[in-house]
Design brief:
It is a single chain. With 290 residues, the chain is mainly alpha-helical. The protein folds into 2 domains: 89 residues, Exopolyphosphatase. Domain 2 (Nucleotidyltransferase, domain 5); 183 residues, Hypothetical protein af1432, CATH 1.10.3210. The protein has 15 helices and 5 strands. The protein has a 3-stranded mixed sheet with strand order 3-4-5. It has a two-stranded antiparallel sheet with strand order 1-2. The model has no long low-confidence stretch (mean pLDDT 90).
């Protein structure tokens, strides 16, 4: 759904359900969930609406009418789910005027590439890190895309104080204006970046958000984060070094192979982070120089 009045309905639904992620874009409801909120709006006065919503009074006056229109749209088109867009008609008109080579680009990846170019110390390294990490996650285009997004963002908060770097990375993903990203994937991206900087992956504000993920999602995000942590520590932003290393996983072992020319890059910190990553995968880590 596109439009300010529909976004106001979405924000009301979030407040009623104490939804943990306050991002309207890609907020998705089942038809039954939406109807419950539309029924609540029908029986609620302006004062109660303003108490639960941060929308302006002028916008809230339109919400009951928008709710009736939305109810009829549901009856007419019988959708399975309803998703709300954080963008509007102006963005749609701009999109229509773009050349095709721009329209076909992935909005999430383009945003992450822009952030890497603007904020990272090692511009271009994220692509190489993603290719290095990707074999550790299931072969799914959605996960490959998530690995690339996380890798592009893995260094953008380097200027922050180390004590707050993990939290800032987390917030960049949770609050950033990132398109093409549904809520579950957004939390996975934020969690991966959290594990990239924080060994234990703990953050108080994450406790409620993790309810949007299943255990497999959490495990994959942790693997991505710890693999980025290892790759960044090993290569220090040097793609040539990273290309002379590789990870090989078996049932009982995660082997980090180093070319003899980069053997000195494998020190105590690298071995420790390899073991942390291996533990996520249920195996032991070992370093081999070839």
């Amino acid at each position: 759904m596109v439009g300010g009045s529909y976004r106001a309905i979405a924000s009301i639904d979030m407040a009623r359900r104490s939804y943990p992620l306050q991002v309207l874009h890609e907020y998705t409801l089942s038809v039954d969930e939406l109807i419950q909120t539309l029924d609540w709006i029908d029986g609620t006065n302006d004062g109660d609406l303003s108490a639960i919503s941060s929308s302006s009074a002028a916008r809230l006056r339109l919400v009951p009418m928008a709710a009736r229109v939305l109810r009829q749209l549901v009856v007419t088109f019988a959708p399975k789910v309803i998703s709300f867009s954080g963008y509007g008609l102006r963005e749609g008109m701009l999109y229509e005027q773009m050349p095709r080579e721009l329209r076909v680009r992935d909005p999430l990846i383009e945003a992450c590439r822009f952030m890497e170019r603007s904020l990272s110390r090692f511009v271009g390294f994220g692509e190489h890190l993603a290719a290095w990490v990707a074999p550790l996650v299931p072969d799914d285009p959605r996960l490959t895309r998530l690995v690339l997004a996380a890798s592009l963002l893995h260094d953008v908060s380097w200027r922050s104080d180390p004590s707050s770097r993990a939290e800032e990375c987390f917030d960049n993903a949770m609050r950033g204006n990132l398109g093409g990203l549904h809520h579950r994937a957004r939390v996975m991206l934020a969690m991966a970046l959290l594990h990239r900087y924080r060994k234990n992956g703990k953050l108080e504000k994450y406790n409620k958000l993790k309810l949007l993920l299943n255990q497999n999602d959490k495990n994959i995000a942790k693997v991505i984060g710890r693999a980025m942590r290892l790759g960044a520590s090993l290569a220090a932003g040097n793609a040539d070094v990273l290309h002379k290393t590789s990870l090989h996983r078996s049932a009982k072992c995660l082997e980090l192979r180093l070319d003899s020319s980069v053997a000195n890059y494998g020190g105590e910190a690298v071995e420790m982070r390899l073991c942390e990553l291996a533990a996520c995968l249920g195996c032991k880590g070992t370093v081999t120089v070839q």
